[in-house]
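Q: Hi! First time doing this. I have a protein sequence and I read that you can turn it into a structure. Is that right? Here it is:
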Amino acid sequence: MNSCIEVSNLTKSFHGRCVVNGLSFQVHSGEVFGLLGHNGAGKSTTIELLLGLQKADSGSATILGLNAGKHRKEVFERVGVQLQASNYQNAIRVDEICQEMAALYKKPEDYHKLLKEYSLEAFEKARVDKLSGGEKQRLSVALALLNQPEIVFFDELTTGLDATARRDVWKHLKDLKKKGTTIFLTTHYMEEAESLCDRICLIKAGKKLIEGTVKEVIEKSPYGNLEEAYLWFMGEEVVQ
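A: Yes, that's right. Below is the predicted 3D structure, encoded as structure tokens:
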């Protein structure tokens, strides 16, 4: 199976604190890959290093065979990104942010089509800050797909959503996978990872604990579900 993301011995420290610690993993084309860990485990920093938004202290990371820091324009034409801290201009409308984002790409998707696909066509003239949490997250997905990417990154996409809105987003991601798009997501919701991911990598304090399919990770623990296996790998007591 072809690897579209390669991470090898990636390391990054901030102010003397090691945030990503010798991290290595691969992501295969067409799969949903989950990077799992507690808040502060280094998940977002790993994505930023992959995308060239931060410079690694050592190690290497490539997307589609390219170093994003050196080939940023080429990578961003082929990759979609929703980062955890997505900030929009005050009072900007949905259609305005779509037009601004589409202008960044050579061959953008028709944003009207994406808004319809993600049940947002009724909000085209609405201000982004007036959308509900679920609507904002669906908009984040649509914006990440404007350049028709081969790989899309979602960083804690469903944090703060209620169960109904979260499952609605899951459905859209599953539909996206069926189209052959590679999905890289970070989450601390084990139910989400179990529902969506083909393979996962668990990290603690920036260091890899285990990588494999959800089934493989569970089977390497004493437990029968991912949440309990996750806590066991993290060295935390599972309350019976």
